[in-house]
Amino acid sequence: MSGVNCKKAMAQLDEYLKQELTPDLAAEVRRHLEHCRPCFSHARFEQNFLAMMETCGRRETCPSQLRAKILEALRAEARRR
Amino acid sequence: MAEPSAAGRPFDEEALPHLDALYRVALRLTGDPSQAEDLVQDTMLKAYRSWQQYRPGTNAKGWLLTILRNTFINDYRRRKHEPIAMDLEAVEPHALDRSLEEVDPEGSFFSQIVDAKVVEAIDALPTEFREVLVLSDVEGMRYAEIAETLQIPVGTVKSRLFRARRLLQAQLYAHAVEMGYIRPREATR
Q1: How far apart are CA B48 and CA B179, in angstroms?
Q2: What is the value of pTM for the model shown?
Q3: Which residues on A lie below 8 Å from B13 (Cβ)?
């Protein structure tokens, strides 16, 4: 099999999962993951971890009374001009 | 209500959709809901006043988060009780725990964990790690945007993120053991 080895694929895994790689490099990593079970498994773990951070970390929202307070402050600021 | 930016976009339309993200990042930076509220309000007023300088085509969320972070550093950080700074580079990634992955290779535990526990673990990270992790992995900013926001090289963003994630995983492993979801590894001799 041509392309990247485990070491190179794993060095780029983070950027692969965060979609920071160029399409060419991403395709190389993807091909490696399709053929290498340990790397695939590790990628799954990291992917689940990333998804968990996004889901759990984004649950909180701006309280509605703060939103109202900010809108009021912006209106006051606009009147001052 | 606001004058349009140089690009002709009204402030409300561009900025208000990001209030949730601003509030969450403010919470993670200040660690205090009432300070977070003040910080978000200060940020929005500053952004409003400099709306004319907002460059069309730039990412409004990134622009607002940059203002928020700078406001935090300049006006809030001194008020906060910061833990003693640790030597960030001394956190050796290879020495960090991979225990969670060893006992739970698919990361199934991640779908069982309670939100509050994750947030608690993020809040326990050293500031420099916490801010890159929140901006990248929670709020979805690109590495280049984070580098610009924090005024650090992209390579530093990546290395801090790497360490931040390992530290977080180590804490979640401890939590998984504590709640009996997984059994700790046998100590190797």
Answers
A1: 46
A2: 0.86
A3: none
B134 band by pLDDT with thresholds 50, 70 and 90: very high
What single-letter amino acid sits at B31?
A: G
pLDDT, tens only, B75-89: 887 655 555 455 555
**How many other CB atoms are there within 10 angstroms of residue A61's CB atom?**
13
User: Residue B117 is which amino acid?
Assistant: K
Structural contact between residues B42 and B87, judged by C-beta atoms closer than 8 angstroms: no
For the four alpha carbons of B133, B134, B140 and B145, in that order, the dihedral sign comes to negative
**Under DSSP, is residue B2 helix (H, G, I), strand (E, B) or coil?**
coil
- Percentage of chain B beyond pLDDT 70 is 82
Task: Decide if B2 and A74 are in contact by the 8 Å CB cutoff.
Answer: yes
Contact criterion met (CB below 8 Å) for B171 and B113: no
Per residue in A15-72, pLDDT (tens digit) is 999 999 999 999 999 999 999 999 999 999 999 999 999 999 999 999 999 999 999 9
Are B135 and B96 within 8 A, CB to CB? no
**ipTM given for this complex:** 0.90
Q: Residue A8: CB partners within 8 Å, gap ≥ 6?
A: none
Task: Report CB contact under 8 Å: B105, A67.
Answer: no
Question: A interface mutation test: which of B109, B129, B138, B145 has the most A CBs within 10 A?
Answer: B138
Contact B113 A52 (CB under 8 A): yes
